[in-house]
Write a structure and sequence with these properties.
Number of strands: 0
Number of helices: 10
Strand content: under 5%
Structural class: mainly alpha
Number of domains: 1
Largest sheet: none
Helix content: over 70%
Length: 207
């Protein structure tokens, strides 16, 4: 069912170009599951100029952060009860720990990583995180995440696609993924148990 929803959303948004990208990116950062990457990648591949790539980057990054304010509002007004309806209780505890212990750094981690950005927005709203720092961390994180994606696909697209055909590429990628996954997995499991790295001073929640 999710696959059908994803295909329907992408097919619809693709007809509206940058506007469709903005709608998908903003709504994904607030509540829906379809990632904007499914539009960013083909749009970057077919872009004819650097200006088009820049437009894609600005639209997807800014609209994602704007949409995350909707997620922030969901958490702000719904609190923990609504978080527990949208995610597992164990995941909610980890998301709360991520925002409460690491502040804007936690938002940045979510913005550049596979951690659902909307879920961290919910937790940041529920924890009443300073909204200016929330926006700032989101802009930096989403800018890096989408910027690297567009740079690799849009600028080095042909070379990158050819490298996917090389067994050496997948061997190196697999090794890097494995090396990174093990400590990150341990950190995520221990995040709400008090065993992960010390939290930074909580100036981010009090400004």
């Amino acid at each position: 069912m999710l696959e059908r929803i994803t295909e329907g959303v992408i097919d619809w948004a693709d007809e509206f170009g940058l506007l469709g990208l903005a709608i998908v990116s903003s709504s994904e950062a607030a509540f829906q599951p379809v990632p904007p990457d499914l539009l960013v990648i083909p749009m970057s591949v077919s872009a004819d100029s650097t200006w088009e790539l820049l437009a894609i980057f600005l639209v997807v990054s800014i609209s994602s952060v704007v949409g995350s304010l909707g997620g922030y509002a969901i958490g702000l007004f719904g609190g923990r009860p609504i978080l527990e309806k949208m995610a597992k209780k164990s995941s909610v505890s980890k998301l709360e720990a991520l925002t409460e212990r690491f502040g804007e750094a936690g938002v940045f981690i979510a913005a550049v990583s596979p951690i659902p950005y909307k879920a961290v927005a919910w937790a940041a709203g529920a924890g009443r995180m300073n909204i200016r720092l929330f926006i700032f961390a989101g802009l930096i994180g989403r800018g890096i995440r989408f910027g690297l994606e567009i740079l690799v696909i849009g600028v080095w697209g042909d070379e990158f696609i050819r490298s996917l055909e090389s067994p050496i590429f997948w061997l190196i990628a697999g090794m890097i993924t494995l090396v990174a996954f093990i400590p990150l997995r341990r950190w995520w499991v221990a995040l709400d148990s008090g065993d992960s790295m010390e939290a930074k001073p909580e100036l981010s929640n009090r400004l």
